[in-house]
Specification:
Elements: E1 2-6, H1 10-22, E2 26-30, H2 33-42, E3 47-51, H3 59-68, E4 75-79, H4 84-93, E5 97-100, H5 105-118, E6 127-129, E7 132-135, E8 140-143, E9 146-148, H6 152-163, H7 171-178, H8 188-201, E10 210-213, E11 217-220
Parallel strand pairs: 1-2, 1-3, 3-4, 4-5
Antiparallel strand pairs: 6-7, 7-8, 8-9, 10-11
Helix pairs in contact: 2-3, 6-8
Length: 236
C-alpha cells in the first residue's frame, strides 16, 4: 500500500512515516499543502493522510482541488481535538474519513486499511496466479492449501507483482512502488528480496513464478495469460 502523508509538523510526520513503514507500507511525506497537491495529482497512492492546517494551501483547499480534478484517492483528514465543524467541512468537501489529534496509531492503521478495502471494486479481494493466492485484507499468502509466512516487505513485494502479474518492472520501478521513498541504497536489494520470495513461494513447491528479464527486471508470470516470448525472458 502506498500512502501520501501531508503533515507540516516534522516530528509527527516522521513518527507516522516510521510507524507505517514498520507495517510494510510505502510512505511519501509532504510538508506543505502545495507539495501535497503536487504529489497527489502527479503520482498514484492508495490513500492520503491530510492535515487541515498546512502552509501554502490548507488541507481543505488541497482536498477541494483534488476532487475538482477527479482524483478519487481516499483521503483521511487530521483534525483538531475539538474540531466538530472541521470534521463536517472535511466530509462535505469529499474526505472519506477523519481522525482527531492526538490519535492512536493502532486506530490510524485500522482506518487506512478500512479505506483501501472500501475503495475501487475493480481490485479483487483475493489475488491469484495459478495456485498461488494472496489476500490483502487478511494478510494471508497460500500456495494451494499451504499457508506461507512472509515478512511485511516480502508481502508488499508479492502484492505489487501479483497486482500487475504479467507486467515487467525494472528494479527502480519496484523500489519506487514497494520501498520507502527515502531509500537511497543499492537497487540490488530488489534482487535479494526476489530471492527470498522465490525460496518461500516457489522452491518448496517446484514452481517458477517470478521471472527474470535480462536487462529489464522482473515479472510475475500469469499462468492464465499470454506473455511475449520476444522479451528476452530468462528464468533464474
Amino acid at each position: 500500500m502506498r500512502v501520501l502523508v501531508v503533515e507540516d509538523e516534522p516530528r509527527l510526520a516522521d513518527t507516522v512515516r516510521r510507524g507505517l513503514e514498520l507495517e510494510g507500507l510505502v510512505v511519501q511525506l509532504a510538508h506543505t499543502g502545495t507539495d501535497g497537491l503536487r504529489w497527489a495529482t502527479e503520482d498514484e497512492f492508495d490513500v492520503i493522510v491530510l492535515d487541515i492546517m498546512l502552509p501554502g494551501l490548507s488541507g481543505y483547499e488541497v482536498l477541494r482541488r483534488l476532487r475538482a480534478h477527479d482524483v478519487t484517492t481516499p483521503v483521511l483528514m487530521l483534525t483538531a481535538k475539538d474540531g466538530d465543524y472541521e470534521q463536517a467541512d472535511a466530509l462535505d468537501l469529499g474526505a472519506d474519513d477523519y481522525l482527531t489529534k492526538p490519535f492512536s496509531f493502532v486506530v490510524l492503521i485500522a482506518r487506512l486499511r478500512a479505506l483501501t478495502r472500501r475503495r475501487a471494486p475493480q481490485r479483487p479481494a483475493r489475488m491469484t496466479a495459478g495456485d498461488l493466492s494472496l489476500d490483502p485484507a487478511r494478510r494471508l499468502v497460500r500456495r494451494g492449501d499451504t499457508e506461507i509466512t512472509l515478512t511485511p516487505r516480502e508481502f508488499s513485494l508479492l502484492e505489487f507483482l501479483l497486482r500487475h502479474k504479467g507486467t515487467a518492472f525494472t528494479k527502480a520501478e519496484i523500489l519506487r512502488n514497494v520501498w520507502d521513498n527515502h531509500y537511497d541504497g543499492p537497487e540490488n536489494v530488489v534482487e535479494v528480496y526476489v530471492g527470498y520470495l522465490r525460496r518461500k513461494i516457489d522452491t518448496p513447491f517446484g514452481r517458477t513464478s517470478i521471472e527474470t528479464l535480462r536487462g529489464v527486471g522482473y515479472r510475475l508470470l500469469d499462468p492464465d495469460g499470454e506473455l511475449d516470448d520476444e522479451s528476452g525472458a530468462a528464468p533464474r
